[in-house]
Design goal:
- This protein is of the alpha/beta class and 774 residues long.
- It folds into five domains: 113 residues, Roll (Archaeosine Trna-guanine Transglycosylase, Chain: A, domain 4), CATH 2.30.130.40; 56 residues, no CATH class; 178 residues, Rossmann fold; 59 residues, Helicase, Ruva Protein, domain 3 (Orthogonal Bundle); 181 residues, Ribosomal Protein S5, domain 2.
- Helices cover 44% and strands 19% of the residues.
- It has a seven-stranded mixed sheet. The protein has a five-stranded mixed barrel with strand order 1-3-4-5-6.
- The longest helix has 53 residues.
- The radius of gyration is 56 Å and the shape is rod-shaped.
Length: 774
């Protein structure tokens, strides 16, 4: 029941509720609250503590306060800096707030103390309440872990249920709202219900919090563990001098993100980077792995350049860069036309075959310029190791990718123009066959999955435009030759060389040597004399050297002698190039017995070949001199056999070949000679010497002979006809089967030449011997 009304100093608390039995201190800063403490200390040290509903309100009124508060005994007051008071109080009993006097200097509360009415609860009920609160509090202490064991034991040892409930409520870290609920509870049963609900709620919250903390801790522990391990690894690597590995690995990952490649290739490279990170930086394996990753990252897997489809521009570039070479230019334009129509099309494998100095390499460079392709040159001369093409296994010491892969990395795109220079100069040894390794590279049906032993990832070479060069088709194996499209580049005519010199070589050498057009003039007569008397070649390399020599002498004359202009003519050319080096073996001035003029093909173009035959008394022997090869020796034997078979027709007695020796000689004995095209020439010279009939001096011939006198076709006809023209020959005997070759030649080559097509040795003799002249 209610007690009489008491008026006493009061303090409105913010954010805290004090229960009876609690000993707690709090700070006060409001002047009215300080005055209330002073008034309480003057009287009986008792003060009424009531909680504000809104903790932000500075001057609360009656309606802003809870109805139930606590009368507390002020045990200690301590002054703190900044006008603060720290007050230590002990709650004694609870009371209801009836009225509030807000006049200065402090709050005065009219309160009525609340006495706990004794409830008539049966003993089993109280025992059940005690056990319930005891178990809940014990569970709470186990889950919380923050309450001291001594206090927990002291509270759990309380036998009286009322005291147990009071002590649990006092020592439980509740919010001020929950404490206020407990404070306002009337009677033991209501207090039990409120406290039981609060304990149950706190236990549930602790369980949820613990579960969340465990999950968070597991996540944090994992991240923390990884972080700590990384830091430890970093320190260890720094101690071992391996800190660069981590930096390099991160740099590789950045490059991998920017790499244009398929998902499978990126996954492969990513695995290699992970492996690289785990390797000891000072080991040899680390260096191998680093080189391997850098090679993979440098390759243009899916990076392509845009090919030019401007046919007019391409034609101008080809015309500007090279004179003649009509067949080559037309084939390139055909390729461009197909690419423009289909926007894909497989790139052809072109092989340019011709003598040195005919511009094969420069043609490839011009094609790359015309197509706007990246250009890379691979020199295959002297390559013997298959690994040079396919690459070495990366497990070997000093392993590296093959030349094709290295060329792609150098080009930076997957569709460049790659020049395979001197493909006929490759060879094989115990390390493998280089030409066999090239089969996969140059096969359009296979090179879309080219496998380099070092890279170990298939590469697509189908969009690469391969152009190969060779001097002689005989040096290229048949399977490799079958995969390429052959384009012949024969030697240049005198007129073509003159055009090339004027349009390309002279301007190029003048620019290299710092000579302007006003300083030097080289007349056409000088160019023609250089071609005929200072060079002997199918191409124009020696001619370019002669022009360069003239330019250098011009530069010296200008600098030392102060000359303003130099004019080089055919008459004063020897002043710059010295005496003449070559002179063509000109046609004989008169018909002679036993001397026939043949035509030969050499690496530097065509040449005339004079064959001399003498008949001497002897034992029927055939003597061959002049460094003849096996093929020419056999041609001479075949010629003798044919002549013996037709001896009766020419009045030759049977015993002639038993009583006389025949000596066949080709001058310039120090120069080796061989080839299957001197048969009819030797047979004509031998028959002329035997029957003593002169051979026409103005006739030259080329062709192989059979035992029955048939004339077989030959190769290198263009070079041979050019040689005949330079030597002043008027008539040339050519196998009839070579007629189609002559028809494809420019008229400039056949001009002023009488070409007679022959099928049999009889026709040859009819044209060649003076007695057969009609």
């Amino acid at each position: 029941m209610s007690e009489p009304v008491i008026i006493m100093p009061a303090i409105a608390l913010r954010g805290t509720t004090i229960l009876p039995g609690m000993v707690v201190h709090f700070d006060i800063s409001r002047k009215r609250s300080m005055k209330a403490i002073e008034a309480a200390m003057v009287q009986d040290q008792k003060i009424f503590l009531v909680t504000q509903r809104n903790s932000r309100q500075e001057t609360p009124e009656l309606r802003d306060l809870y109805q139930t508060g606590t009368i507390a005994y002020v045990k200690q007051v301590v002054k703190l800096p900044q006008n603060l008071l720290r007050v230590l109080v002990e709650g004694t009993e609870k009371a209801d707030l009836l009225a509030l006097d807000q006049e200065e200097p402090y709050l005065k509360a009219e309160v009525s103390m609340i006495r706990q009415e004794e409830e008539e609860l049966q003993a089993p009920v109280k025992a059940a309440m005690h056990r319930s609160i005891h178990d809940l509090f014990q569970q709470y202490c186990q889950d919380n872990g923050k309450m001291s064991k001594e206090m927990a034991v002291r509270i759990l040892d309380i036998a009286d249920v009322e005291e147990l409930i009071q002590q649990v409520a006092v020592n439980l870290p509740l919010t001020y709202q929950n404490r206020q609920r407990f404070l306002e509870a009337s009677g033991l049963e209501e207090q039990y219900e409120v406290l039981g609900a609060l304990l149950t709620n706190e236990i549930d919250l602790l369980g949820i919090t613990k579960e969340l903390q465990q999950k968070l801790k597991a996540r944090v522990d994992k991240n923390q563990r990884e972080y700590i391990l990384r830091e430890q690894l970093k320190v260890i690597r720094e101690e071992l001098g391996e800190n660069n590995i981590l930096d390099d690995a991160e740099e590789y990952r950045k490059r991998l993100k920017e790499l244009q490649a398929s998902k499978e290739i990126k996954e492969k490279i990513n695995k290699e980077i992970d492996r690289f990170k785990s390797i000891n930086g000072n080991s040899a394996e680390s260096t191998v792995e680093r080189s391997y990753i850098e090679t993979l990252l440098s390759l243009p897997w899916d990076k392509r350049s845009q090919d030019s489809e401007d046919l007019e521009k391409a034609w101008k570039i080809l015309q500007k860069g090279h004179y003649g070479l009509k067949e080559i230019k037309e084939r390139i334009m055909e390729f461009l036309s197909v690419r423009s129509l289909t926007h894909k099309g497989k790139s052809p494998i072109l092989c340019l075959v011709g003598p040195p100095g005919t511009g094969k390499t420069s043609i490839a460079r011009s094609v790359a310029e015309a197509l706007d392709k990246k250009y890379v040159r691979i020199c295959l001369g002297g390559v013997r190791d298959e690994a040079e093409i396919r690459g070495h296994r990366k497990t070997y010491v000093g392993a590296m990718p093959g030349r094709v892969t290295a060329a792609l990395a150098q080009a930076g795109v997957s569709n460049p123009l790659i020049l395979l220079d001197e493909i006929d100069k490759t060879s094989s040894d115990y390390k493998g066959d280089t030409s066999s390794a090239l089969l996969e590279v140059l096969d359009p049906e296979q090179n879309s999955r080219f496998n380099d032993h070092y890279v170990e990832i298939p590469q697509d070479l189908s969009e690469v435009l391969f152009i190969a060069t060779a001097n002689d088709l005989q040096g290229i194996p048949r399977p490799l030759l079958d995969r390429m499209e052959i384009l012949d580049i024969s030697g240049y005519t005198e007129n073509e060389k003159e055009h090339i010199a004027k349009e390309h070589l002279i301007p190029k050498q003048m620019e290299i040597n710092g000579i302007s057009k006003d300083m030097l003039t080289i007349q056409g007569s000088a160019v023609r004399k250089m071609i005929n008397n200072y060079t002997k070649e199918a191409g124009v390399r020696s001619l370019e050297r002669c022009i360069g020599r003239i330019c250098r002498k011009t530069a010296r004359a200008i600098m030392e002698q102060g000359k303003d202009k130099i004019r080089v003519t055919g008459k004063n050319l020897s002043e710059y190039l010295g005496k003449e080096r070559y002179d063509y073996l000109m046609a004989n001035k008169k018909d002679e017995i036993g001397i026939a003029r043949g035509l030969a093909w050499t690496q530097v173009g065509g040449d005339t070949l004079q064959i001399e035959v003498n008949v001497m008394p002897g034992k029927g022997e055939l003597l061959l001199t002049g460094q003849l090869g096996d093929v020419m020796k056999e041609s001479a034997q075949a010629g003798i056999s044919y002549i013996r078979s037709v001896a009766g027709k020419y009045g030759i007695l049977p015993e002639f070949f038993r009583e006389n020796d025949i000596h066949v000689h080709i001058p310039e004995g120090a120069v080796p000679k061989d080839g299957p095209s001197a048969g009819i020439t030797m047979a004509t010279a031998i028959l002329s010497a035997v029957i003593q009939v002169p051979v026409r001096a103005e006739v030259a011939m080329t062709g192989e002979i059979t035992l029955r006198g048939r004339v077989l076709p030959i190769g290198g006809l263009k070079e041979k006809l050019l040689a005949a023209k330079y030597a002043g020959i008027k008539e040339v005997l050519v196998p009839k089967e070579n007629k189609r070759d002559v028809q494809e030649m420019d008229k400039e080559i056949t001009k002023d030449l009488k070409i007679c097509y022959v099928e049999t040795m009889g026709q040859v003799l009819e044209h060649a011997l003076s007695s057969g002249k009609k």
